[in-house]
Amino acid sequence: MRQAGAVVLGLTLNGLGVARSLAMAGVPVVGVYQDREELGRLSRHCADTVHWTTRGRTPADLTELCKALAQHWEGHGVVYPTSDDFVELLAKAEVLEPPLYVAVGQSPLLRAVLDKQHFAKLVTEAGCLAPRTIRALSLEQILAFMGKCNGKALVKPRISHRSAGKLGSKVVYLASETEAKNLWEVIAPWADELVLQEVVEDSPCGIVVYLGYRSRDGRRLVGCTGRKLRQIPVDGGTAACVRLEDVPGLTKLVETFITAIDYRGLFGLEFKWHQTCKQFCLLDMSARTELFHTVALAGGLNLPYLAHLDCAGPWPPIRQPVRPACWIRVEHELAAIKRLWCRGISPGHLLSGYRGRLCLAVFSVKDPLPFLGYCAEFARRVRRRLTQKTGGTATCGSDLSPKDVARSIVCHVGAPAAFRWHHRMAPVVVAYHGIVADSDSQDWETADMVAESRFRQHLEFYRRHYNVVPLRRIAKTLATQDEPLPRCSLAITFDDGFRNNLTFAVPALEEYGFVATFFLTTGFLDGSAELWWLPLKRCILMAHRSGSGFRLPGFGNLPVSDYQKAGESYRKALDLLKELSADERTSRLQELERAFSDASELLRDVYDPLTWDEVREMAGRGMEIGAHTVTHPILSRESEDRARREVYDSVRRIKEELSSSDLPFSYPNGQRADFAEDTEDLVRQAGCYAAVAGFPGFNRKAGHLYQLRRFPIGGHHTVHAVELDLCGLRHGVKRILGLLRRSHRDDQ
Fold first, then answer.
1. Which of these, 144, 229, 397, 626, has the minimum number of CB atoms within 10 Å of its CB?
2. H/E segment holding residue 54
3. Would you list the DSSP string of 527-548?
4. Span 547-566, mean pLDDT?
């Protein structure tokens, strides 16, 4: 009897890797490709290749093809479907009889797994958690389902992918009634193909996967767990980056489910941690030989070859995967590479997506032709991108700015890591003001606020590279030097006291197990004094929207006709008003508000203050509360009596509400000229154990206890911008450039 071979259905990047891994293990391979862009057809590891398209074919046709190709080895072979089209046909085909096997589940169970609605039922019956899933036949059903899912749903085609071409994507994310109606107009003729799935909100652990194989006799299950570092779209799409790592509790859950449905063959399972139920939710099952198995190969577990030996030979000794292993497929679009960079992927790992001996990668020294074909395809796609016309304008499909590119390059050559190590014993403090929903993030209107999704990216960065500790611990160590801080210590603070601190910031901080300090402007919370720059911002915004002119009392007219010019005028007016005393500034702002009385309700939702009940709730959830004066004046420009009242009254008010013994303090505006030694003495006498400023720097000395440096973080701060700030590189470059400019002026 001749050696059993492998029939690889599909020779895209997925199939190319499977063919290589099997051939390198000594298995003869025949490949089937559908079009000439499939790179695997050029591989020398395929003993033969056959052009065969699924379009217009029946399941019986595929069965006959597999049997015919297996005649190369007297009918002994294993079939590896590597694309959805082939899996769909196999699910409807007759069960293949030994000695011809399928590396994934056989037809009846395969159909049940591919039907998303039926799959959710299988998961529930197995005692596991699954998101709600329905097959929608009308717009009313879609809207009703979205209502049950808090207005968010994923659209997934059922088995057949005819509707995917109409949608433009295999998975569509619906977040509003308008999006649902627009979708229905496109997809109505294919309503029987429309499956809706509840969106499981993301968590710090993201999407985790189990990559495994269950033997034909059902007695053995082997696999490994991993984590997706990037996926487009976020809730269902291509995994361009997967990292092998241990996920506690996942293997036992997989054993329960796979045994309950009696699945045998290769598979990949996707999970998300359900925040409410406090357990893993099984999102989807991939019943094909595809990209998930790549990371297992990179870690030393050759799942395709294991399936081959189980079907056509003795069960082999299993070597557990070597952790950690990381595999990446770099997409053509620069925007995708940017997303990878934002997740902290190094250039070496980026390149690993193109090379590999037993991995699903493009480049191989022993098999170079697919890589050359890949380069040719890449060149064609770039050319199409650059020549594509949209409204008469050429577009290249990239959302990268030059600054983003420069920051990414600097971060991934390792410069911030070196600076971070140099300052590892000097704790840093970051200063936020508020967190807003992504939809509320608007250029200069909310420049001091950070979008929720970006804030979570910041927290993930802190988790990976810093030890987040309470501000009190940093102050205690600086004061007494008794208990050393962990390396790369960082404290998170918020100024002013906006309600969005409780709505968005606190839940995100709790997910990561972080404690932050919130500095409150007590008059703002009591309703006796509004933060003085808010009326200014509202009036300029109203002047821009109404098309009227804008005159700043005492300083003349400022341009507001263009949105960006309005932002520039706001920043200029802000600087001018900061130079005034609190009373004079209040007088001019009152005159301005009388001229723009209709602006009083603008931005209310974004800049609402906390209530004292909400402050107590935050304190009860472990957050620290500090003082930030009563009316937010610049203390160095006020009289000694006024400054004393601002400090003492704010501290006293918070102690009354919270029964706190000692508090930290934050200087309004917080620049070096905004407070002096007299101000520090006032804060110390008020019973505050430390005070924070608003200018960047590292905290090494006990003398900094009442002027702790903080790195300000605003809405424009990407993860790379935060990384460059906190390591000191960006501000160091700024200081050098400032010295060079000053030297140049002196020479002139």
1. 144
2. none
3. TS---THHHHHHHHHHHHHHT-
4. 82
Contacts of 340 (CB under 8 A, 6+ apart): 229, 230, 240, 241, 328, 330, 350
**547's torsion region: left (phi>0), alpha (psi -120 to 50) or beta?**
left
Mapped onto helix, strand or coil, the DSSP state of residue 478 is helix
Largest CA distance in the chain: 100
Of 375, 368, 362, whose CA–CA distance to 13 is shortest?
362
Q: Please write the tens of the pLDDT for every residue from 714-731.
A: 988 888 889 989 988 877
- Per-residue DSSP letter, 363: B
Are 378 and 332 a contacting pair, CB within 8 Å? yes
DSSP string, 587-646: HHHHHHHHHTGGGGGTTTTTSPBPPHHHHHHHHHTT-EEEE--SS---GGGS-HHHHHHH
Task: Cite the DSSP H helix spans in 241-390.
Answer: 250-261, 292-298, 303-312, 334-342, 347-352, 369-387
β-bridge partners, 81: 9
Say what the alpha-carbon torsion angle 547, 551, 556, 559 is, to the nearest 10 degrees.
-30
Judge whether residue 541 has pLDDT over 80: yes
**Strand-pair category, 489-494 with 467-468:** parallel
Check residue 581 and give its pLDDT: 81
CA 152, CA 175: separation in Å to the nearest integer?
A: 5
CB-count burial class (<10 Å; 0-12, 13-18, 19+) for 534: middle
Instruction: Quickly tell me which residue has 């002196």 as its tokens.
Output: 746
Question: How does pLDDT run across 630-643, given as a tens digit for each residue?
Answer: 999 999 888 899 99
155 beta partners: 172, 196
At 401, is the pLDDT very low, low, confident or very high (cuts 50, 70, 90)? low
Report pTM. Answer: 0.52
Output the pLDDT for position 530: 84
Say how far apart CA 712 and CA 619 lie, in whole Å: 23
User: What pLDDT, on a 0 to 100 scale, did the predictor assign at position 79?
Assistant: 93
Grade residue 49 by pLDDT with cuts at 50, 70 and 90: very high
Which distant-in-sequence residues (6+ apart) come within 8 Å of 251 by Cβ? 210, 223, 225
Is the model more confident about 502 or about 481?
A: 502
- Output the CA torsion sign for 206, 211, 214, 220: negative
Q: Tell the residue number behind the tokens 């008794």, with chain if given.
A: 482
Give the whole-angstrom CA distance, residue 536 versus residue 554: 14
- Percentage helix, strand, coil for the chain under 3-state DSSP, each rounded to 5: 45, 20, 35
Whether 454 shows a pLDDT value over 60: the answer reads: yes
Residue of 374, 289, 409 whose CA lies nearest to 10: 289
Residue 575 is encoded by which pair of tokens?
């600087």
Q: Can you give the length of the chain in residues? A: 748
**355 pairs with which residues across the strands?**
363
Residues 207, 231: contact at Cβ < 8 Å? Answer: yes
CA 217, CA 102: separation in Å to the nearest integer? 14
3-state secondary structure (DSSP) of residue 668: coil
What dihedral angle (degrees, nearest 10) is formed by the CA atoms of 332, 333, 339, 345? 30
197 in Cβ contact with 118 (< 8 Å): no
